[in-house]
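Input sequence (453 aa), recorded before submission:
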Amino acid sequence: MTDGPQEGEGNSLWNRLRRRKVVQWGIVYAAGAWGLLQGLEYVTSTFDWPRQVQQFATLGLLIGLPVVMVTAWYHGDQGRQRVSAAELTIITLLFLVGGGIFWRYDKASDAPPPAKASLEQSGVAASATTVVSDKSIAVLPFADFSAAGDQGWFADGLAEEVLNALARTPDLMVSARTSSFRYKDSELAIPQIAKELGVAHVLEGSVRSTPQRVRVTAQLIRASDGFHLWSQTYDRDIADMIQVQEDLAQQIARAMQTSMDPAALAEMAGVGTRSVEAYQAYIRGVAGVGKDVPADTLDGYAWFERARALDPNFAAAHAQAANFWLTQLDTTRIVSGLTDASPEQVAKNFSERIDLAIAHAASATDALKYRALKARRELRLREAIELSREVLAERPGDALVFQRGDVRQRPRPGRRAAGRNLAAGPAARGLRRAACQLGACALRQGQGGGPGA
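Predicted structure, token format:
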């Protein structure tokens, strides 16, 4: 076996590297590796593969770089050289070192966290006891006790808006709507419901409504013993519906001993409009879209449109109407494709409404939330994630940051994610998956027609 080609002693190292095509090989390998990692990131986000897939691929490509450089050094000059003993030795050592790095990384990935390891060493199973935070709550759907039984929209909408208000409280953990609303009309005892939801408190209530009066009763129950921590009955004129919801949310937050000051509590509980008619239309819309049924979703959207027409400064109504058009681009939702609007019209409808929501946002945090939604629609993912992180820093449980559903609640005790990490981890991946779905859907619509086609 022969060594590489003999070079003139006067040649510089740089000229020898170029002659042996080491630089060219390195550049081509780096470009190919970068493209492979970008494609792998897209696939990993789309199919929700474990992060270890991309991490191992990155390690493998990094280890492969010196192997490629050594191969180029010996074979880059017109490819005429035979394999030498020195080349075999170097490549073998590189593979051994790379294998060692993989082994160490895999071992470190499988090792339990220090806290868990100490528990196991002391003979205590880490999962034996689930610690439930005392500042956790589930809001059950309110019961409709109206004589005609036709106020279910008000009962459901009011309960959901109270839930959303409490979710904006930084130090409360609120069970998701999709979790707590499963117990509508349930005959299970409150302690059992709380145990299944992993919360320490449960809010239940009822409504009675006539064209002139509204009666709302609510009770905050401690799950451990079933005692009422707080109870209140509001018997008000129909014109006081907004004050009832705002006072209800504030009273519950105080009973839960939240750390928010009065001004922050008022902002948290604020409905966003002083128009009772706009508020009623908005509540009807919330109750409709919350069912994820096509007919109810269309009906809910119509109520949001009425609400924003009655009060053009009602930012939440603009945002909910915009969110309807956003769902029309997501073919994974059963409530997508409900209109015959073209993709261009869908995008225009969304932009008009989300811009109004941003312009009339009740707070700076609300404006950030709506901007994040707009950035998500326009596939500006980095900006969307950064804006969402800012929102979650102030409101760890806010719902509309990413999507409606289980992202709404803060993680229960014992889960890995917490507060701000939600934006850096699972929620950020959820945002990227949603963006991939929207991007793929937009591409399909551009080729084959509108949502209703």
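Checked by second reader. The chain is about 55% helix and 10% strand.
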